[in-house]
Amino acid sequence: MQLTMQSMTCLCGQHFRHRSVLIVGCALSIFMLNGCASNTHRDPAYDPIEKVNRGTYWFNNQLDKFLLKPLSQGYTAIVPKDGRTMVSNVFDNALYVDTILNDFLQGKGTQGASDVGRFVINSTVGIGGLFDPAAPMGMEKHEEDFGQTLGVWGVGQGAYFVFPVYGPNTARDAPGLAVSTVTSGVFWAGVFLNPAASIPIAVLAAIDLRSRASNAIRFVNESAIDPYIFTREAWVQHRTYLIYDGNPPESDFEDNFGDDALDDVDENNDGASLN
User: Fold this and answer.
1) Confidence (pLDDT) at 275
2) pTM, two decimal places
3) Domain spans, the chain
């Protein structure tokens, strides 16, 4: 049960978090592309076990192709958009304590206070997170996790590796999996209320993530010469982008992804079709 709940706590997605199941790699690739400027700092990926990582990446893609993709297509066909949005809102809200904790660990007191207010309002007025009344009140949604906190504290990213099912990670970000788990409201609900319910909830979380990332995955598969390299470099750059709150230091490196690519991603993400 802990493993299934742990996979849920990785919603990258944002949070990444919301950090993730199988598809987080491709999802984060696109989230990075949507946010990074064309000349920003890029930490090179240290990939000492690339052959092993490529094998795991292939396995994850096959799992997505034959399981998650068909499930997400059915989910999108059956559940209206408003219903899918409410499902996403509930999972995001259940994981938001992770953001609040890391706000304060990074010394962001004002942001942390705002995020506490956001969580309380959405959990009460928003009926357990089904709705997001905090947003119109000016309480912006943030994305913080323990991997970012370690980066803010000066810890290097370390080796890049790919987890089965979960996807991309680094030595610095891996401890965030445990922190995301113990701060997840869904995890503790499964522990104390009905452990058996954790499995279908985890499945729903995975399908929700896959449906959100469908256009991102299609973009990577159709546009990248080497999807593994694309995903790896995009994911590492996205993590750097988050650590610096969207303002990484300028670098002599020219970003591998130009404005045309960004435009393509924006257009793809506007659609509702699934890969």
Assistant:
1) 56
2) 0.77
3) 2-7+25-270
